[in-house]
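Hi V.,

Quick status before I head out on leave. The structure for the redesign project is tokenized and pasted below; the design run finished overnight.
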């Protein structure tokens, strides 16, 4: 259950409004009220819970939840006294119920006295600028944003309406769309990793003269880094989600809705189509293309192009079926040697 010290509550809410948020059908008194959300095993009569995985179906019979968002197939297993909220996508429905009962923090408009805001910077209406924030010359911050303590916004940066920059994140050489979220310690727009060797064995940095463009509603996880382009721009399309500790190299181009999981790294000048998924600790070499809806398995090493809708795994990566066939043959060889 959500700790009230950290999470605001809009409850209690009517069952009818909760069902509308979940996109669910129900039977019973629409005026009944609920105050929070919780997992099946911890929920009480005033809580809404959910079931989206058959593995947890045994918990349904014992739950004390007042309402459960679930598929129609499980509706007849809901205990007496609980309301079945029948939805086609229970997890999505439950997420929307949780957001209804525990809405995101709203900005408290104003600029903290300890913030340093350049005279020619523009701060939109209703935006909250927290303690120790630094906003550089010519930067433009949209309306209704939240900049938490110690955020740094470099000169000329543009940030769209409704963005949230959490503590100690920094942005330079970048343009952010609407509703972008940067989690604590995220770094956007720093110099990319580009250099030229000299005849005497030293390295000279290649000037990184591009930008970072983040599409609307992109989210960047804690301590993740997105380098600016070297000549062109590094671009993440609308709705991309980066987990914590992700590295995006210079000139990477991502389509819409890509998901990059923790500790994954994408080298420079790589192109991702729409809705590409890269799992944890995977690495993608530079100058390759991953087609739309391609999926890269955990710890894979991608060194070549991946066609659209193909799943790859292993290092070097290969299509999933080929990988498991190779593993099967390897195990037989190992077994034969042991014998």
């Amino acid at each position: 259950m959500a700790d009230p010290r950290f999470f605001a509550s809009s409850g209690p809410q009517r069952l009818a409004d909760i069902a509308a948020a979940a996109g669910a059908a129900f039977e019973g008194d629409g005026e009944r009220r609920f105050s929070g959300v919780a997992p099946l095993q911890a929920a009480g009569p005033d809580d809404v819970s959910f079931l989206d995985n058959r593995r947890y179906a045994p918990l349904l019979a014992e739950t004390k939840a007042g309402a459960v968002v679930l598929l129609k197939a499980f509706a007849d297993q809901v205990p007496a006294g609980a309301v079945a909220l029948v939805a086609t996508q229970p997890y999505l429905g439950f997420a929307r119920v949780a957001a209804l009962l525990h809405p995101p923090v709203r900005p408290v408009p104003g600029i903290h006295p300890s913030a340093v805001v350049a005279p020619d910077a523009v701060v939109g209406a209703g935006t909250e600028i927290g303690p120790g924030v630094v906003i550089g010359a010519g930067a433009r911050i949209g309306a209704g944003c939240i900049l938490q303590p110690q955020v740094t916004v470099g000169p000329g940066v543009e940030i769209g309406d409704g963005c949230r920059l959490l503590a100690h994140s920094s942005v330079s050489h970048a343009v952010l769309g609407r509703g972008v979220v940067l989690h604590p310690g995220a770094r956007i727009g720093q110099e990319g990793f580009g250099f030229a060797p000299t005849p005497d064995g030293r390295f000279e940095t290649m000037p990184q003269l591009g930008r970072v463009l983040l599409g609307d509603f992109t989210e960047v996880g804690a301590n993740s880094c997105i380098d600016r382009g070297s000549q062109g721009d590094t671009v993440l399309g609308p709705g991309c989600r980066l987990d914590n500790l992700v590295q995006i190299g210079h000139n990477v181009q991502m389509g819409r809705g890509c998901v990059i999981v923790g500790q994954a790294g994408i080298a420079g000048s790589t192109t991702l189509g729409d809705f590409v998924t890269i799992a944890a600790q995977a690495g993608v070499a530079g100058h390759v293309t991953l087609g739309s809806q391609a999926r890269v398995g955990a710890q894979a090493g991608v060194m070549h192009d991946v066609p659209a809708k193909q799943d790859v795994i292993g290092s070097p990566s290969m299509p999933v079926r080929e990988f498991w066939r190779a593993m099967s043959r390897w195990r037989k060889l190992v077994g034969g040697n042991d014998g």
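Above is the designed sequence. The chain has a mean pLDDT of 96.

G. will cover questions while I'm gone.

Best,
W.
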